[in-house]
Predict the structure.
Amino acid sequence: MVKAVSRKRTRTARASGVGDKLSVKVYKAMKRDIVRGVHPAGEPLSEKYLAKKYRASRTPVREAALRLQEDRLLRIVPNRGYFVSQITLQELTDIYEYRAAVECAAAELAARKATDTELLRQLVELAETSYRTDSIESYMQFIEADTVFHVGIARLSRNQMLIRAVNEARCQMERIMYAAIDIHYFGEVPTREHRAIMKAIVEHNPDAARKHMNDHILQSKSKVLRLTGSSGVT
């Protein structure tokens, strides 16, 4: 009897592990598609549709939806379903205020504490990343590189809470950057700003690193706010 119970627990644990992996897989796929605009802001999504699209049962979809609601990418409305979150003017302001708080702190700490020479070298190279304004693929590659750059600076700070915070902010920023593709606006490539940030970090100048990161974020905010009328942000 003890062996039977033990076998049952093992099977349950295995089943739970498979379910957890599937839930994570669905979560990552749904998150990617929301961020990239496959599911536009305001779009209603049913569990049945999502289960079919992501080849899963409704339970992993439901678990993924709960996580996406915590990420502020999805709204769960009882008895109505799921809705892709809108990007409002207030949310844009919140995102940039959040970025200024966490990324300026990360840059300052990176300048004080950075010792990973390989990561520093990679970020100095990434600071030069550009794109062609006639190529969506080039711009998408830039978005990915931009995220690696900003998260990399947080990694240099060696503060796990800042790393998580910057990752969260980048999720929202990627969504904004992908949305700009729909109105054929790629913005200006911020290589000069990226170079200034990395120069301050490499030279271990925390005041300059904080200032250049703050200037960079303010420049980005200014560009995005100029677009809000044409991009459908309310």
Remarks:
- Residues 2-84 form a domain with the Arc Repressor Mutant, subunit A fold (CATH 1.10.10.10).
- The mean pLDDT is 88.
